[in-house]
Amino acid sequence: MEFNFDLEHIVDDLNVPEDELLQLLGDAFVGADTLWPANQRWLAWIDHRLVACVAIQRRWFRLASGYYEGWMVGTVCTTPDLQRRGIATELLRVTHADLRKDELAFAVLNCGESRVRFYERNGYQQVSARATYLRDGVAVIDDDPAMAISLLPEFDVTRLVCDSFPFGFDF
Question: For the chain, does the N or the C end have fewer beta carbons within 10 angstroms?
Fold first, then answer.
């Protein structure tokens, strides 16, 4: 299904429409009430209404096989009344195309088990069955899968396979 939406690309959270974004996140993630910092955001607007977003943060990830710098993808969502219409897929396509212009080789995210097929259809591969985060200075295991996508042809995301993907620090 094809939608005509206006795309907004925000860098370093300059002039982010916080109220609209918090409303979208609250609707899509049932009660989300804070924004995590992002180096880049892609927002989709239909008739001056924010309907979807993707946020990206540049990060270093430490795995047993070494240090890797890549993109952490978060807050991929579409307003509930417009889900399953291809908006998030198109937004991810635009986001990945733009990220491929950078030198970083991959993007990674974690998602609920029910979202794995969606991300696989969008080019991601599962690299771990769970993730590790720091919350209030304590490492916490999250049983949601970690997914990665190669942004450069020479990068094989199987390098990132591990027991628990280290997403890392507190926001």
Answer: N
Q: What is the reported pTM?
A: 0.89
By the 8 A CB rule, do 118 and 112 touch?
A: no
CA angle centred on 22, ends 21 and 25, rounded to 5°:
85
Distance from C-alpha of 151 to C-alpha of 155, rounded to nearest angstrom: 7
Pairwise CA distance, residues 140 & 90, whole Å: 32
Q: Is 69 helix (H, G, I), strand (E, B) or coil?
A: strand
* List of E strands, 13-158: 40-46, 49-63, 66-78, 106-110, 125-128, 131-135, 138-142, 146-150
Evaluate whether 55 touches 74 at the Cβ level (below 8 Å).
yes
Element spanning 26, H or E = helix 18-28
The answer to whether 139 touches 163, Cβ cutoff 8 Å, is no
Per-residue pLDDT band at 169 (split at 50, 70, 90): low
pLDDT over 70 percentage in the chain: 96
> Structure tokens of 48?
């001056």
**Do residues 133 and 166 lie in contact, with contact meaning Cβ atoms separated by under 8 Å?**
no
Residue 15, both tokens: 């002039």
